[in-house]
C-alpha cells in the first residue's frame, strides 16, 4: 500500500480531536482499548492500542482494573498506518508522521 502523502512530522492541536475512530475493548494478552479509523493526516487506515487501566495494577487474571476517567480524553497518538510514505526516515517503519488527538466516543469508553 502506498500513499501520495509524503512523510511529515506535524502535530494537530487538541481543538481538532478526531471523532471518526471506532473504539473497542479487547482482551488479547491483556485488556486494552483499540481504536481503528483513518489517519487525519494521510487518510490511510490505522489501528492504535492503549493498555486498559495502564497506570493502575490489576487485581487478578480476569480483572480489568479501574477504567481510565472519562475526562482523561481525548488521547494523543501518532499515525500507525502501514502505507509507504515518501521520505519516511529509516528508523520509522509505520505512519506518515502525523500526530493527533482521538476523541472518546459520545457514549463514553467501552466497558
Give a description of the structure.
The chain has strands at 10-11, 22-27, 31-38, 45-51, 75-78, 98-102. The protein is an all-beta fold. Strand 2 and strand 3 (31-38) form a beta hairpin.
* Strand-residue proportion: 25-35%
The largest sheet is: 3 strands, mixed
General shape: globular
The percentage helix is under 10%
Task: Based on the model shown, name its key terms.
single chain; mainly beta; three-stranded antiparallel beta sheet; 111 residues; 6 strands; globular; three-stranded mixed beta sheet
Short structural summary:
This protein is an all-beta fold and 111 residues long. The protein has no helices and 6 strands.
SSE arrangement:
Blueprint lengths: L9 E2 L10 E6 L3 E8 L6 E7 L23 E4 L19 E5 L9
Parallel strand pairs: 1-6
Antiparallel strand pairs: 2-3, 3-4, 5-6
Amino acid at each position: 500500500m502506498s500513499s501520495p502523502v509524503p512523510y511529515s512530522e506535524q502535530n494537530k492541536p487538541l481543538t481538532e480531536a478526531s471523532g471518526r475512530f471506532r473504539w473497542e475493548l479487547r482482551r488479547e494478552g491483556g485488556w486494552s482499548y483499540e481504536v481503528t479509523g483513518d489517519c487525519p493526516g494521510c487518510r490511510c487506515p490505522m489501528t492504535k492500542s492503549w493498555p486498559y487501566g495502564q497506570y493502575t495494577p490489576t487485581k487478578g487474571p480476569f480483572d480489568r482494573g479501574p477504567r481510565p476517567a472519562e475526562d482523561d480524553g481525548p488521547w494523543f497518538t501518532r499515525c500507525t498506518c502501514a502505507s509507504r510514505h515518501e521520505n519516511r526516515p529509516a528508523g520509522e517503519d509505520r505512519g506518515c508522521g502525523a500526530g493527533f488527538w482521538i476523541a472518546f466516543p459520545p457514549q463514553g469508553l467501552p466497558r
